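Hi there, hope your week has been kind to you so far. Thanks so much in advance, here it is:
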Amino acid sequence: MARKASPIGPHVLALIEDARVDLARAALAVREGDNEPDFKLPEDVPDLADEEGVEAFRQALVETLSDFDRDDLRPAEQRSRRIRALAEKKGVTSLTTIVQQQLDNTRSQEFHRQPDELCRSIWAYLHERETFEDAESFHFARQFRDHGKLYDAFEVELENQVALDAAAIDEKALASKIKGMLELKPEISCTVKALDLPATDTHPASIMLIVRHGGPLSSVYDHRQDGRRGTIYYRPPNEATLIYTPSMRQIEVCADSPVVRQTVSDSFAEVALGHDISQKPLTWKRYNLSRFRSSLLLQPPEIEGYAFEFARVIEAEIRLGTWRRKLQLKVTVDDDIQEVADRYLGARNIFRRAEAFSRITIAVAYNLIGDEKQRTLNITIAGTKSCNLQSKPDPEERSLGFALLKEWGILSAFRQIAHDDLRAIFPQLVQLHDRIEDEVSGSYLLELGLDPKRLIEGGLLERCDRQDVVLIEDDDVDGEGAVKPSVTQGMVKAVGPFGEDVGKRPASDVEMFAVNAQWLHETLMRLMKPLLSKRAAQILDPDLTLVGAIQIDEADVPVYFARRLNDPNAAQRLDLMLRARDTAGVGIVFAASEEMPSHLGPNVVMPLLSHLASADEEMLFARGGIELAYRDGLSLARGGVSPRVVRTGKQSGTLFIPGREPLHLAGNDQLTIFERLVVAAAKGSPDVQVKALMEGFESRSPQQAFRKETWDSIRDVYIGKGAKNGYWRLLLIAQPTEAVAEPTEEVTV
């Protein structure tokens, strides 16, 4: 007989096996909500010196928890994972650092009295929860410093060096400033906590701020004991962690939202550093090290006022597959690092196939024109967001270093795009957001009329590797060709499938760029705000956002923003989601796509770009046209006056039934099935035999034309069994379905 798999997760099991049993039991007994089960763990903890008793107690814990399923154990598994994260590697240092900052001598001694790292982490979780959570924030910030998409590093140009520590920061004033800039409602609290971080081997002394505030009101469905569905409303906690390093004049911040990252950084600079953001905005810089894949050699550029003797890479560090594996090559300034790499690592060495460059050090020898003194400058770039230049005390040296990196194509700096400029390119930004892929080519951006350099500076794009293939449309060659370097500056060479030369094309056309989808989304939301009477941004799906409400005829109409509606599968998924939100009433779905259904759930869909105001108007949108389109679609949103199927494309359409929400249909099979049912209902003979209903299709049942979740949501609502076995009918409001036996023709999927 096969052995039953244990439902206990690895982190809970490790806690039971490795921690002192009294602490392990206490941690597993924690319940943070009424929905969590009471495990009724054994209470008689044995004498810790009794090894046999301790081992038996551990086994009793395992046996008790084994009676529960994985869902019941999931909260305990998550808590155990958090505890173990602060008991291993850098998590230990993170917890110890925050404990030293926050606990008094008595509590700190109690913490250190615990026998090992795991026990200390459990003790902090049980007895000093706030300190434990602050240590988690610090630990996550350290991880994001190394590699994280939720991380930004801003640089602040201060007139004078500011001596600052955690005690000097006005936490209440800073919290008030952040709350105002984020436009949080009065009932949403915002707290700021400042801590001093001592210097380590890898980072100078810093100050850490933990910012916590409530997010927009949200809800989830709850399955109740009686089988009914209820709704639980909650306000999710949002958190941002900021680290300021005075010696580097650098602000590092971690948060889910790029807008929050910039807002928190700006607020800190104004309140804590006395920096005038309006005169000298904070800037972030991105470092693109991909050029070193093809060559580790650098040529000194021409910069007015400087003469260069050489510029050489003396250190290169790459990551091999994962961030934990790295390869580092260091040479002297007299060595040619390219030659050393080719000699000892092979002509086509690993640097060309690296997962990512994590560190590059460049040595530059130069002198000022008219000055015989030879000078040197070392530039170290760590990853995409960190460079040692900001810590250079000489502003002229800093300026030269950044100029060199810009000339080599390594550096791009953040520069906020003006509101009027964003308005001017709003249609192109919507089209960019509507793409299925999050990478775009330079040629596509050229078609849209967008300047990639400006979008990179504004944080909307990031540079990627160039395309390695292009489409060739030539009299002699038709298909894909490989992209190869060209001796002509600014051009690349296209090579056909048999090595034939098929011409040059601009290198900018084959450059690839990654869309910063989150920043682009928030930019579009910010531009849509003036249209709304109520703002309540809530991301319901990666392709659907509740934006707020607009007032029409003295009623608040929900407003959504949807993208990728030209994809039938995406449209059907969002239709299912919006039909589940039917209590919100008839709303408006602004579509980024031009091809779209007319309705999604009980909502009128309208193309966003069709309702833009003229350029000379103050508002970005023509509100009158939006109201008119809403009123025109209102009747159909409630089902219309008679059943019908309206095709809006070759593979998409909408079913309308009076009194029911419109149903989006994707694919010819779905459309044809309901068209046949509508015709039968109109003739007064609503029942259609399954053979006639599925005529011309490979499938033998209407169920097979739909995804399972869609079928479950429409069966016995829009379509039901007929009066006879093997028949189906369209379900109208006044025509309840009859209880009959399962049709023999139906094939269960």
About this structure: Residues 735-749 have pLDDT under 50 and may be disordered. Residues 293 and 352 are 4 Å apart (CA to CA).
